[in-house]
Each structure stands twice: as structure tokens, then as C-alpha cells.
Amino acid sequence: MLDTAYDLERARLRDSSNPFIRFADLLPVRDAVLFPDDVEYTPCVHAKRLGAQVGLEHLYLKDETHLPTGTTKYRSAVIVLSLMLESGVRRFASASTGNAGTAYAYVLQTKPFSSIEMHLFVGEKFRDHCHYGDAPNIRVFALRGGTFEAAAAASGAYASQLGLVRDAGFFNPGKREGAKLAFFEATDQIEAPIDWYVQATSSGLGVDGTYKGAQELLALSHIDRLPRLLCVQEDTCAPQVRAWEEGCKAIEPRHVVQQPQGIAWAIHRGDPTGAYPYMRAKVEKSNGAYCAVSESEIRSAQASVKEHEGIDICFNAAAAVAGTMKEARRGTISPRETVLVNLTGNFRSPETETKAVTWLERRDGAWTSDDNTIRIPY
Questions:
Q1: Three-state SS annotation for the chain
Q2: Over the stretch 114-147, which tens digit does the pLDDT of each residue have?
Q3: Residue 84 — very low, low, confident or very high, per pLDDT cuts 50/70/90?
Q4: Which class does domain 73-173+351-377 fall in?
Q5: Residue 351: its pLDDT value, please?
Q6: Is the N end or the C end of the chain the one with fewer CB atoms within 10 Å?
């Protein structure tokens, strides 16, 4: 586990409406010229009508659907690829449920990132969630019958075979550093101190990055307290929630979900064995909580956000809202506390889609292409 440390005695927040520029001293990229120059803060809505429904006076929704690819993953893609460019990385392998891969692809088709080549692995059911056009520097591998975990393992093995840099998901510091920007923006947009930060969780890199970022802002006296963390998962794939509820410090075999099912597909990580100990420590330190929500609760929350606040969100973002509602009714969150919910994305319209896909089948102990030119042991 690697974290990025900054010289906080010299760091300052710049006067800019572009979050990448304003918070540049707290990002692991030396040359700000790599940052997009047309990005502004996403809206942070004081959800008074939705809050009244569950008795929360100070409920705020960070609407990340306004980002170029419709999800918060765009922020991490910019930071990761900028870091790669500065580090001399020109080829890397990654795995995705769709949002991260789409964000990478979007940035990779802009200058100066078009010199970087991505080899993207997806499980079969996530293949249709890759929404971008074909590009010469993007190669996609889809695993028939494969889960996200299988895709992640295959991407790592493939990277080792070809000598590529491995994305590493939760353990990629650039991803976690980019993920904290939503919270950074919200501290400028909300006058009151933020008591709770809520996000739907797969591995938890967004929450992990946010808490680290909050510690940095506290050291700079930009905020006066750290938020409590609420991590939400769908109950059909909630290994971290189950481990937390049982008081386990690590994911046990009984917590692992081999074939995740449900509607909040982007947060379905059935085996977060590596990430959970770090996440548990952060949630515990913040005096936070984990929460599992059902499909009906997710659908109800999605409808409520649309009805009361006019925002269209995906099931993954709706899970975070559902978890907030559930914990408010339980009394975990008090009526007067300030709550920030990260609406991590919407349902992207597949205006463009990648058609050049190499399918891999399980055969003779390896993921194998039809022409047998690719064999990745599993």
C-alpha cells in the first residue's frame, strides 16, 4: 500500500474554479499543464425536500453526473494518466466494471495522453458498460463467464507476461488521490463542517482517498473536523458489510461472493480481501459505519432523488442515498448533522461503444483467445 505525502507546510489552495488547479498542491502531478483546462466544480445540491423525507436538515448531494463521462471515475483517470505520463509509462493493463474503463478511454483519446496504450479487461456482463469508440491505443479483452475479480487477476497476469504496468485498482495511489476531489470541492460549496461522507463502495478507494484528503485539508486549516465515513453496499454483494458486522478484521471465505448479482453492478466486488483491512481501519478511525441496502431500497431512493431534486442517478449512486436514509431512520445519523452523499454517476447513454473486443475463454487452465495467440493462466 503506497500513499502520496505532500509538504503541507508549503502547500496552498489556489484561486481557481478548476478543481485540478485549485488543489494542485495536494495532487501527485508536478506539471499542471497536464490537467484539463475546461473542468469546473460539479454541483453540490442542498437536498431540502429529500432531506425532509428522512428528517435530515442538512443533506447535500454531490452531483458527479456532470463530469465528462458521467461518473466520478473521470477524476481518478486524469490523475492516474497524468502520473503515468510524468513517470514514463506508455503501456498499462487494467480491469473495470465499465466506469473506470470508460473514463480512462475518454482521457486517452485526448492530448497529450494519446501516447499511452491501455489493455483493458472486463468480465462478460460488464462488456456492454464500456461506452467509447474504438481507438488505436485501447485494446479490450472480455472474459466469457468471467467476474470482475477474474478480469482483475487476468489483467495482472497479462501485465506480467508483457512487462506492462499494472493498474492495481485500490492499490493505485493515483486513483485514490483523484477520488478525493469531490470532497475537496464540497468543502468550498458547503458552509457548515461536513459531519458525514457517504459513498457506495466496491473496494472503497473513493472513501479511502476522501478520508486522506480530509486529513490534508484539516492540516491546512481549510476544515475544522474530519467526516465520519458511511460505506454502502447492495445486500446481494456486501462482503465488507458482513465482515464489519461480525467484527472481523479481515475478509473470511464465508464473506466472499463468488458470482455477484443485483442491480448496483459497478459496486459488486465479491472479494475485497486486499482492500478491506485498510477500509475497516479508516471507517473505524472516523467513528463511521457500513450499511447494506436492498434492491427495493435502492430503487426507492433513486425515484426519490428524481422526484424531489430532479437528478437522474444510477443504481450505484442510489445505493449511497438508500444507505443514508436507512442510517438516518436508525438514528446513526442525527437530524442536524451535515451529510454529504457522493452521487457517483448516472446511467450513461451508449452513444458510442467499443466494437473491437478480443474474447477470452476458459480453456486448459488459461484464459485463451480463439486463435490461441493469448493464453493467461488463472
A1: CCCCCCCCCCCCCCCCCCHHHHCHHHCCCCCHHHCCCCCCCCCEEECHHHHHHHCCCEEEEEEHHHCCCCECHHHHHHHHHHHHHHHCCCEEEEECCCHHHHHHHHHHCCCCHHHCEEEEEEEHHHHHHCCCCCCCCEEEEEECCCCHHHHHHHHHHHHHHHCCEECCHHHCHHHHHHHCHHHHHHHHHCCCCCCEEEEECCCCHHHHHHHHHHHHHHHCCCCCCCCEEEEEEECCCCHHHHHHHCCCCCCCHHHCCCCCCCCCHHHCCCCCCCCHHHHHHHHHHCCCEEEEECHHHHHHHHHHHHHHHCCCCCHHHHHHHHHHHHHHHHCCCCCCCEEEEEECECCCCCCCCCCCEEEEEEECCEEEECCCCCEEEC
A2: 999 999 999 998 887 776 778 899 999 999 999 9
A3: very high
A4: alpha beta
A5: 57
A6: N
**Range 138-161 average pLDDT:** 95
Q: What is the pLDDT of residue 353?
A: 63
CB-based contact 367:375 (threshold 8 Å): yes
- Domains 41-71+176-343 and 73-173+351-377 alike in fold: yes
Write down the pLDDT at residue 113: 96
The confidence score (pLDDT) of residue 152 equals 95
Q: Which overall architecture, per CATH, does domain 41-71+176-343 show?
A: 3-Layer(aba) Sandwich (3.40)
> What is the tens place of the pLDDT at every residue in 185-240?
999 999 999 999 999 999 999 999 999 999 999 999 999 999 999 999 999 999 99
Contact between residue 86 and residue 34 where contact means Cβ atoms under 8 Å apart: yes
